[in-house]
Description:
Chains A, B, C: It comes from Haloprofundus marisrubri. Chains A, B, C: This is DNA polymerase sliding clamp. Chains A, B, C: GO terms for molecular function: DNA binding; DNA polymerase processivity factor activity. Chains A, B, C: Sliding clamp subunit that acts as a moving platform for DNA processing. Responsible for tethering the catalytic subunit of DNA polymerase and other proteins to DNA during high-speed replication. By secondary structure, chain A is an alpha+beta fold. Chain A has two domains: 2-114, Proliferating Cell Nuclear Antigen; 129-240, Proliferating Cell Nuclear Antigen. Chain A has helices spanning 8-19, 70-77, 135-146, 197-206; strands at residues 2-7, 24-30, 33-39, 45-52, 58-61, 65-69, 85-91, 96-101, 104-109, 129-134, 151-157, 162-168, 173-179, 185-187, 191-196, 212-217, 223-229, 234-240. In chain A, the strands form three sheets. The first copy, chain A, has a nine-stranded antiparallel β-sheet. Chain A has a five-stranded antiparallel β-sheet with strand order 5-1-7-8-9. In chain A, helix 3 (135-146) packs antiparallel against helix 4. Strand 9 (104-109) of chain B pairs antiparallel with strand 13 of chain C, so a sheet runs across the interface.
Amino acid sequence: MFTAVASADTLSxxxxxxGTLVDECRIHLDAEGLRISAMDPATVGVVELSLDRRAFESxxxxxxxxxxxxxxxxxxxxxxxxxxxxxxxxDEETRxxxxxxxxxxxxxxxxxxDVVRQEPxxxxxxxxxxxxxxxxQFDQAIRAAEMVSTHVAVGVDEGEExxxxxxxxxxxxxxxxxxxxxxxxxxxxPAHSLFSLDYLADMNRVVPTDTELTLELGxxxxxxxxxxxxxxxxxxxxxxxxxxxxx
Amino acid sequence: MFTAVASADTLSxxxxxxGTLVDECRIHLDAEGLRISAMDPATVGVVELSLDRRAFESxxxxxxxxxxxxxxxxxxxxxxxxxxxxxxxxDEETRxxxxxxxxxxxxxxxxxxDVVRQEPxxxxxxxxxxxxxxxxQFDQAIRAAEMVSTHVAVGVDEGEExxxxxxxxxxxxxxxxxxxxxxxxxxxxPAHSLFSLDYLADMNRVVPTDTELTLELGxxxxxxxxxxxxxxxxxxxxxxxxxxxxx
Amino acid sequence: MFTAVASADTLSxxxxxxGTLVDECRIHLDAEGLRISAMDPATVGVVELSLDRRAFESxxxxxxxxxxxxxxxxxxxxxxxxxxxxxxxxDEETRxxxxxxxxxxxxxxxxxxDVVRQEPxxxxxxxxxxxxxxxxQFDQAIRAAEMVSTHVAVGVDEGEExxxxxxxxxxxxxxxxxxxxxxxxxxxxPAHSLFSLDYLADMNRVVPTDTELTLELGxxxxxxxxxxxxxxxxxxxxxxxxxxxxx
Lengths: 247, 247, 247
């Protein structure tokens, strides 16, 4: 059983981060809220997303898993204005999700959860360094890096107490640095890893520019990007595997 | 003889509905205003448009017909700001339409009206059901239907006293319903017909979202869509032939 | 030695007019400001641009020439908001330009000035007629002309005391005229020349619509287009060679 009502804006902010990595996903519909966990086909990026029941106008679920075409569901939600209410109701017999927005009722065929790619099983990961940046700072760093390269080094300069993003092109280079004054928060520790800009650019696209984004980093370790949405009732966690250092 | 002055906005709202169906059309320049009637090459859609002389700042015509390239004329009008005045003057000798917008004079070569496709000869059509919807409601229904199918059923549910729009895809379905509370007006009668979304989407694109749109419907009958513009001095009527029911 | 700070907006207005004509250019960094002079590969258009040191928040240069990829530099400046300050610093040893915008440092590899196309050596040109128009008037004339042709006649009607722009298509024609009342200024003299719309359209794209644009013209002579920017501390001069009259 699942029936819920939420603003189109909240649902869109829930679906878009998942849609950057996968076409289809499982949604866990628990009593306390919904959870999504998915890994991209190349197993480079993982997203873990939760949205608490408090984010909804009304929410009722007794546990269960549905498989959905993420982009399709995001498109349907996109038919609404951002503060329109979207009514969701699971029809367990027909395995359909009924989506109602005003006079519009869209019946979405669900995907068999068993044919959706397995969810990732992440080992607990201790990342020693962390920095809290504004979405717009991250955006500027990633867009500048894209001008010169396909990958980027992200790390912490322990001496200067700075977070940095470095990209090296054949001709030009980009160096982006933020120290304690520029950052919301910084925990200094050894950290330097190389990442694919393809993935970082996709993730960057869904991070609201006015959001605080937490980066957690290590030495040739995955990066953990996380931020809250829907007044803190929702959370997005991205894990991004490092590229092998090519020097 | 024809010479007239109107706002660019009024002229654009006159030309765009015609341009969705045909490339060239005849414009009848009568003493009381102008009239356009055109049918698309596949003979599925018809537009009948009138614009009263009161829509113009000044208007003089003594009857006559000109053939025009609709899109071209719409593009020239589009050079103006929407509240700029556009001066039109027919040069009967050279068969040219002189269009003046401020210091700009565009001389448009007219098309021989005899080579423009014949105007449709519509039998008077009694359509039993009718509904008055807002442009934005129609827009939402059509856009949702386009997500799942290439055609759509539009009808009136006599029991529920509702206008509905139904589209059925291979996987997903769209059902849009508006009852008396949602509608500006509804005349209940048996009505259910299938229409091509290609045409409806094109027509929808030119209907202002804040306009009241009248739909007239029957059982496997054409649909009549009409709305006013330019403070009621202009009227657009679309007729759309039904598709054959495929079940 | 060169180090300077200016608003992104000022730098963008300096680079864009050059980027419409050439990919790479020399920038002369003099004590009083910077100068750029460049001719397009087809030797049809020339741009001469100057930006006074007063346009900068701070400026220090002791003379010297750098070669730059104009579009690339414009893209980097475009990463900033228009009122952000952009810090420029020349590293003479590595022949790199260091561009700093907040926490972002972009290191741009310079181009050897000796491999950049020679700067044009323009003979002093006496152009008898001139008109001062608003950018938006010029914009409307050029866009209308583009609808019918690939070239345009620009001239002064001595009898009517008007500046005109004429374009003749296979079917339609455009005539644009501005007399003393419409113009900021007009110096009447014999003037009529044909120009490529490709070039004029590119030049038009960078002229701000709210700017006064000075056109200087003669009989089958080049056109001189000039305007100021950055509160009069910057000036753009375009020279455009006439096309041969084809009648």
